[in-house]
Amino acid sequence: MASQARRGGVSLPDRRSPKKNDDTGIIAKLSQSPIVSRGKQAVSDAGFVTKKLLKSTGKAAWLAGTTFLVLVVPLIIEMDREQQLNDLELQQASLLGSPPQK
């Protein structure tokens, strides 16, 4: 049993080593050109700047949101309470028959 017999199936051709020519393809030439490398660098730089901008924008949004919740929302609630109190006093004055004060 030194040699095993093949049982059906399809045998694939042997892989050939790629030919080493001095001629490279057009895609290889283009991908190694300085214009393409500068374009890749520009895209990389733009991505970096965008990432930093989004990060700082997120921090600014967090700061603005928490400031709004701490300072502005209680002010709005207090102004609403004051308006309700004024409306209640005006309603009581009209029920008692006294002229409403402006």
From TrEMBL:
<dbReference type="Pfam" id="PF04281">
    <property type="entry name" value="Tom22"/>
</dbReference>
<feature type="compositionally biased region" description="Basic and acidic residues">
    <location>
        <begin position="13"/>
        <end position="23"/>
    </location>
</feature>
<keyword id="KW-0472">Membrane</keyword>
<keyword id="KW-1000">Mitochondrion outer membrane</keyword>
<keyword id="KW-0813">Transport</keyword>
<keyword id="KW-0496">Mitochondrion</keyword>
<keyword id="KW-1133">Transmembrane helix</keyword>
<dbReference type="GO" id="GO:0005741">
    <property type="term" value="C:mitochondrial outer membrane"/>
</dbReference>
<keyword id="KW-0653">Protein transport</keyword>
<keyword id="KW-0811">Translocation</keyword>
<feature type="transmembrane region" description="Helical">
    <location>
        <begin position="60"/>
        <end position="77"/>
    </location>
</feature>
<dbReference type="GO" id="GO:0006886">
    <property type="term" value="P:intracellular protein transport"/>
</dbReference>
<comment type="similarity">
    <text>Belongs to the Tom22 family.</text>
</comment>
<keyword id="KW-0812">Transmembrane</keyword>
<dbReference type="InterPro" id="IPR005683">
    <property type="entry name" value="Tom22"/>
</dbReference>
<keyword id="KW-0675">Receptor</keyword>
<protein>
    <submittedName>
        <fullName>Mitochondrial import receptor subunit TOM9-2</fullName>
    </submittedName>
</protein>
<dbReference type="InterPro" id="IPR017411">
    <property type="entry name" value="Tom22_pln"/>
</dbReference>
<feature type="region of interest" description="Disordered">
    <location>
        <begin position="1"/>
        <end position="28"/>
    </location>
</feature>
